[in-house]
Write a structure and sequence with these properties.
The complex is a heterodimer of chains A (509) and B (318).
Chain A: H1 4-30, E1 40-46, E2 67-74, H2 78-108, H3 116-132, H4 137-169, H5 175-179, H6 182-207, H7 215-228, E3 234-238, E4 244-248, E5 251-255, E6 258-259, E7 262-267, E8 274-279, E9 285-287, H8 297-306, H9 315-338, E10 340-344, E11 351-353, E12 361-363, E13 379-381, H10 383-387, E14 395-396, H11 408-415, H12 429-469, H13 473-508
Antiparallel strand pairs in A: 1-2, 3-4, 4-5, 5-6, 7-8, 8-9, 10-11, 10-14, 12-13
Helix pairs in contact in A: 1-13, 2-4, 2-7, 2-8, 2-12, 3-4, 3-11, 3-12, 4-8, 4-9, 6-7, 6-8, 9-12
Chain B: H1 8-35, H2 46-100, H3 107-128, E1 131-132, E2 135-136, E3 148-151, E4 155-158, E5 170-174, E6 177-180, H4 185-188, E7 191-196, E8 202-206, H5 207-220, H6 226-279, H7 283-309
Antiparallel strand pairs in B: 1-2, 3-4, 4-7, 5-6, 7-8
């Protein structure tokens, strides 16, 4: 037989329980907009008291014992969490990539009506005009000007792309440029996250004792893990004490409360200017080149863009393509130039000559003849030719010395625009640029499509996550009504018990 | 249908996502409509990009060829009128020679005729030095100096590129097609110049200029050799034939250029059309897409505004 007073205790218990439940509801409501907050639910169960003789079970003694809070659980779906992180890593990879593509595309865009494609066409047109009027100094100046435009296009595209590449992975020689590069910044951000996770882990471990789960710390932990996933493809394993270990490939980065792996960038070579290393806390390398482990995330995109993988869109491959084009183009033009005669204006009347022939395109700083290969960065128009446009060999080698009106060699130069070059995969210079445009367009389209589809996937998972873990105000409000009513009812019960006890006391006295 | 629990954050995120998607679509359609271009960068449509660039290259070539033909035609017109002038000179010379071969003419008359031939000779030489835009058209590839130099004793000498050397000035008028737009003075007019001052001075030459120079000398000769004078008539006929051949060739070149120009205009139209099909926006479709997307955006805005207001809170008494 339970005591009459036990009803008071159970009513009081109920009051306290509903107060806690209302507090949790309050917590849910006030954190509705908090990033990473997980909706919490109060789990209660019927309180079973010990029966007589120590047996548990529902008997008349146990009835009326009330309810107890088992736990306050976070509504998380751990599968969605890990799915979100892996997709977020892929999505960040593509979005970092697609942010960079416009710079590359703008540099070579042949549709813009300016730039290399247009200036190459103008150069050949100028050669054609020169062929019909080789004695006219205006025509010659215009030709040299068009050659200078082509050279400066090559220079500016090359420097634009190189500078951009340096901003992503450093220039490969200067430690300062590496330390300011995107890949280093991203590694540093990831290190900060890893460090925070390690210290959070130790706090969680110390507060998880005794079966209590520190829900707010777990929210923070999940938030950190989500944030980390944008940098690299990390593997997260959860320990029994609610701490989380993080590894990259099979190399541990965070083990419980300590950060065992630190990402560091070091100077690489020309084709891969940045090497990511995993070091221990003393700075000794555990993995001397972790580039191959980082296949996605922002760091993965940086390494890919700055690297030289021929199968992906890398800045370097476009610089190399331009170098090839610059060399083949200069070689073709110079070979024709060397096969003709220029006009020597020092004699009166002017005569044709082949003495001290100048190449049109040379390396900077200017020399008389070019040495191959040239690069897009150093191609320039020979200063001698700029000073005296009559150095352009417009006349054929077979013409007599007084045949200054011969433009047949300049016509050959124009016709070379239709000659395919073995070094350019048997394409003409114009076709090579067109193919480059087509290739870059396809690659960028691919990346843009992947970026938009992966970001759609991520936002869908985020919505699903939000559906599971987010707060629904309507639900909270109806819970609140329920808890409020329960509270009022418990108060009524207390009142009733008190009244009956009062009645008993009055009757007895 | 299962009544799934939906959190406010999820609802809000998906509403924002939808609005952003619609805004992006409206923005890109607006760009298309306002620029009139569907493809402005290679990634918009890589296949079309290559096609557009091919068209651009072809159009550039067409414009180059067309410019070449225009300037070549102008030069040919100048050349043609010079050649007509030479034909005229020959006709006049024939009349003079006809008259002179009549034995009734006295020395005074023959002297006058010799002056006339002298006039014609300098007219022919002048025509041989015809220039177009600062270039001497009959000098072969020597265009900077007048091809004919005249001296009182040295005679009339052609200093341009001889027709036996590569004298052709070619212009590109099509893919792999060039046209020669010039002829040399030595083919057209010949020359007559002193090779050795002698005495006796030795002269050599060819063509009309030789015929006229010889005729002039014969008209000045005393006593006049009427047989020799009349023999110059047959030389003049030969000269006339060769000049007419050149005239016919020039005419053929001009006709070929005109024909090519017409062909190029047609090609230009078809390439421009092809490029436009690849690059330009189909306005009707783009505008209707735009208005559709604007409606979609408006709808998502209205829905967002409405749903955001729905809450149990509105129905709870304080």
């Amino acid at each position: 037989m339970s005591s009459s007073l036990s009803a008071i205790y159970s009513a009081e218990n109920s009051l306290m329980l509903n107060q806690v439940a209302m507090n949790i509801t309050n917590d849910n409501i006030s954190n509705e907009g908090t990033k990473g907050y997980c909706d919490q639910t109060v789990n209660t169960s019927e309180l079973t008291s010990l029966g007589e003789g120590g047996e548990t079970g529902t008997n008349v003694n146990a009835a009326g014992s009330g309810a107890v809070i088992d736990s306050i659980s976070r509504n998380v779906d751990s599968y969605l969490d890990s799915y979100y992180r892996s997709q977020n890593s892929i999505s960040s990879y593509y979005s970092e990539y697609s942010n960079s593509t416009s710079t590359i595309q703008d540099a070579v865009n042949g549709l813009s009506g300016s730039g290399l494609t247009t200036d190459l066409n103008s150069f050949y047109s100028a050669a054609d005009t020169l062929s019909s009027d080789p004695t006219d100094s205006t025509t010659r100046t215009a030709f040299v000007q068009s050659a200078e435009n082509v050279a400066s296009d090559f220079n500016s595209i090359s420097s634009q792309l190189s500078t951009y590449r340096a901003s992503i992975v450093g220039d490969g020689t200067d430690a300062e440029s590496l330390s300011q590069s995107a890949v280093t910044q991203n590694c540093n951000s990831l290190n900060t996250d890893l460090k925070s996770l390690a210290s959070l882990n130790s706090t969680i471990a110390s507060s998880s004792t005794g079966g209590v789960t520190p829900n707010n710390l777990l929210d923070q932990r999940d938030q950190l893990l989500d944030d980390m996933s944008q940098y690299a493809p990390l593997t997260v394993t959860q320990n029994s004490n609610n701490t989380a270990n993080v590894s990259l490939g099979n190399v541990n980065l965070v083990n419980g409360g300590t950060q065992v792996g630190v990402l560091q960038t070091t100077l690489g070579d020309a084709s891969d200017p940045a090497t990511v290393q995993i070091c221990d806390s003393n700075g000794n390398a555990i993995v001397s080149n972790a580039n191959s482990l980082i296949t996605s995330g922002k760091i993965g995109a940086d390494l890919e863009l700055g690297g030289s993988d021929p199968n992906s869109l890398s800045i370097n491959s476009y610089i190399n393509n331009l170098n090839t084009l610059a060399t083949s183009f200069a070689q073709q033009v110079n070979t024709i130039q060397e096969g003709g005669q220029y006009t020597d204006n020092s004699t009166n009347p002017a005569t044709l000559s082949t003495t001290n022939m100048n190449d049109i395109f040379v390396q900077s700083p200017a020399t008389q003849t070019a040495t191959y290969p040239l690069t897009a960065a150093d191609i320039t128009v020979n200063q001698n030719v700029i000073n005296d446009p009559f150095q352009v060999a417009a006349a054929s080698a077979t013409s007599a010395a007084n045949a200054t009106g011969d433009g047949s060699n300049a016509l050959l130069l124009y016709q070379s625009s239709k000659t395919s070059i073995a070094g350019l995969n048997n394409q003409t210079t114009q076709q090579y640029m067109d193919t480059l445009n087509g290739t870059i367009g396809t690659q960028i389209q691919n990346i843009t499509n992947n970026a938009s589809s992966s970001s759609t996937i991520v936002s869908q998972i985020a919505t699903q996550k939000g559906t599971a873990s987010g707060v629904n105000l309507d639900e909270e409000l109806s819970n609140l009504i329920e808890y409020q009513n329960q509270y009022e009812a418990s108060a009524k019960v207390l009142n009733a018990v008190e009244a009956s006890l009062q009645a008993l006391i009055t009757a007895v006295s | 249908m299962v009544n799934a629990r939906i959190s406010d954050v999820a609802t809000q995120n998906s509403m924002i996502q939808n609005m952003l998607t619609n805004q992006t679509k409206v923005n890109s359609l607006e760009q298309e409509v306002s620029s009139g271009l569907a493809v402005t960068q290679p990634s918009d449509n890589p296949e079309a990009t290559v096609g557009i660039l091919n068209c651009t290259n072809a159009l550039n070539d067409i414009s180059t060829y067309s410019t070449n033909i225009t300037s070549a035609t102008s030069e040919l017109n100048v050349t043609n009128s010079a050649v007509s002038g030479i034909v005229n000179v020959i006709t006049q010379a024939q009349e003079v020679a006809e008259q002179a071969s009549n034995a009734t003419n006295g020395t005074t008359q023959l002297k006058a005729m010799s002056d006339q031939i002298g006039q014609l000779l300098s007219e022919a030489t002048g025509l041989g030095n015809t220039s177009f835009e600062g270039k001497y058209v009959f000098g072969g590839v020597v265009t900077g100096t007048p091809p004919y130099t005249t001296g009182s004793t040295t005679g009339i000498q052609y200093t341009g590129t001889p027709s036996t050397d590569p004298y052709q000035r070619n212009v590109q008028i099509g893919d792999g097609v060039t046209a020669t737009i010039n002829t040399t003075g030595d083919q057209l007019l010949g020359q007559y110049y002193q090779t050795s001052p002698g005495p006796p001075a030795v002269y050599t030459g060819s063509g009309l200029i030789q015929t006229l120079s010889v005729l002039q000398n014969q008209l000045n000769a005393s006593p006049p050799d009427y047989t020799a004078i009349s023999s110059s008539l047959s030389s003049l006929n030969t000269n006339a034939t060769s000049v007419e051949t050149i005239q016919a060739n020039l005419g053929a070149t001009t006709a070929k250029l005109n024909m090519t120009q017409n062909q190029l205009s047609n090609n230009k139209i078809s390439y421009t059309q092809m490029q436009s099909n690849l690059q330009d926006v189909d306005m009707a479709q783009a505008v209707s897409n735009l208005s559709f997307q604007e409606t979609a955006l408006q709808t998502s805005l209205e829905v967002t505004a409405k749903i955001s207001q729905l809450s149990l809170l509105n129905y709870m008494s304080a």
